[in-house]
Amino acid sequence: LFPLRQRVLEWMFSPAFLKPPSTAIYPDQPERPRRCASMEGNLLEGKRLAGGMFPVEWTNVKRAPRIVSRGTYADWGPLQKKRGNPLVTIDALYVLREAGRS
After folding, report:
1. Backbone angles phi, psi at 51, to 5 degrees
2. Which of 30, 37, 61, 91 sits in a 20 to 30 Å window from 21, CA-based?
3. Is 55 in a helix, a strand, or coil?
4. Do residues 56 and 78 make contact, with C-beta atoms less than 8 angstroms apart?
């Protein structure tokens, strides 16, 4: 059970998962998206790499040269924790912009 819990926590705090709360609309709490964006910005600032990019922290993508279960032919960019991924960086920069950071 512990590895599953760890995997869920890694997924929940990945930059891709942080985008929806900052963009959601809460009619009864108009300050909530900005508050969420601020907390997300704090979390994301610590994940930025030296080059300004953001890495993929976890993925369930499995590259395959042939058809396999859960395999993909798509190029999702670098999937290492030490190299920045352009797709993750775009989402992370969007969240930072919504949080009022650059």
Report:
1. -80, 0
2. 61
3. strand
4. yes
CA–CA gap between residue 26 and residue 34 (Å, rounded): 11
Which pLDDT does position 1 carry in this prediction?
47
Q: Which pTM value belongs to this model?
A: 0.57
Residue linked to tokens 């985008």: 19
Q: Where are the domains of the chain?
A: 2-98
Separation CA 98–CA 36 (nearest Å):
10
In angstroms, the CA 86 to CA 91 distance is: 9
Length of the chain: 102
Q: What is the pLDDT of residues 78-102, one digit of tens each?
A: 777 788 888 888 888 887 887 777 6
Give how far the C-alpha of residue 27 lies from the chain's centroid of Cα atoms, to the nearest Å: 26
Backbone angles phi, psi at 3, to 5 degrees: -60, -35
